[in-house]
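Design request, tokens follow.
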């Protein structure tokens, strides 16, 4: 039985990486998907085709649409929700996936870069959640799953707005979950580790740099977008009906304090 049969889902930033994998996996599991893109309508259209093909292969009848919007812009978010509700009829699940990062020593970071990263990663996620919750309250429930990061709990020097945005996402997830738990609305997050996607272009195609990254991961390898999409599918589905306010880390053990694999701190 497909996990997401008949559900209508909006995925932000779904024209690449993890968002793309979520759109394809969800369609395969029977969901109609609204694929949000910021720039690059062509890539979003290509994801739509892949989602439709995956659904067809799995014998699922679904709708797939693309919808442009910058999640840092409130007016564009409102318009996106209007379009999605018009085209899909209603919404069952919001996936807050859009995210950006940019390295800079904190003492050299510009205010504009700080604001932009916070506006996309955290403020944008909240504004989308607010629109979804308004709709969910009118129809008796719904699900939000946020794309957080291991940097929700692990500091990331030279990426301070990214770290703050993901730390904030943890509290946003918990707070919204508690606020709306008795209204049939569940709010959870996924915390990926190092995943092979365009955001990590700096190391994925450079064997030396990739080896360095993977040497820190207890499972010894980076993860795939499909492995992350599977966790989103679980949290979006009724299989997780009693889970709210949680972050599930899918990180190959990165959150397990890998430096403590050997008992250096006890001198053995
Ligand atoms: P990605 O760069 O492929 O995806 C980011 C997506 O966000 C893109 O589709 C981009 O178009 C979209 N986006 C950027 N600015 C936007 C805006 N203003 N409005 C709407 N959409 C916008 O990289 P990814 O790895 O797939 O990242 C997806 C999410 O996963 C991000 O939130 C990221 O922080 C999180 N994440 C990724 C990793 C990883 O290792 N790849 C690890 C932890 C968390």
């Amino acid at each position: 039985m497909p996990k997401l049969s008949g559900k209508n889902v909006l995925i932000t930033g779904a024209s690449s990486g993890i968002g793309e994998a979520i759109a394809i996996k969800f369609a395969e599991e029977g969901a109609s998907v609204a694929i949000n893109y910021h720039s690059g309508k062509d890539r979003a259209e290509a994801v739509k085709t892949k989602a439709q093909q995956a659904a067809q292969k799995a014998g699922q009848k679904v709708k797939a649409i693309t919808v442009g919007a910058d999640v840092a812009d409130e007016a564009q978010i409102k318009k996106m929700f209007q379009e999605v509700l018009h085209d899909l009829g209603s919404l069952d699940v919001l996936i807050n996936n859009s995210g950006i990062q940019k390295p800079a020593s904190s003492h050299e970071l510009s205010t504009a870069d700080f604001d932009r990263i916070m506006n996309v990663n955290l403020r944008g996620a909240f504004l989308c959640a607010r629109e979804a919750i308004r709709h969910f309250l009118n129809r008796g429930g719904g699900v939000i799953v946020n794309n957080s990061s291991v940097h929700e709990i692990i500091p990331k020097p030279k990426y301070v707005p990214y770290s703050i945005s993901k730390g904030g996402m943890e509290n946003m997830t918990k707070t919204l979950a508690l606020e709306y738990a008795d209204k049939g609305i569940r709010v959870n997050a996924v915390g990926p580790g190092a995943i092979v996607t365009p955001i990590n272009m700096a190391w994925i195609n450079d064997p030396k740099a990739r080896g360095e990254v993977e040497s820190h991961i207890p499972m010894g390898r980076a993860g795939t977008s499909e492995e992350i999409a599977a966790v989103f599918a679980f949290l979006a589905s009724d299989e997780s009906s009693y889970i709210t306010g949680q972050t599930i880390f899918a990180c190959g053990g990165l959150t397990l304090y890998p430096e403590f694999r050997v008992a250096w701190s006890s001198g053995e």
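Comment from the thread starter after seeing the answer: thanks! The first strand starts at residue 8 and ends at 11.
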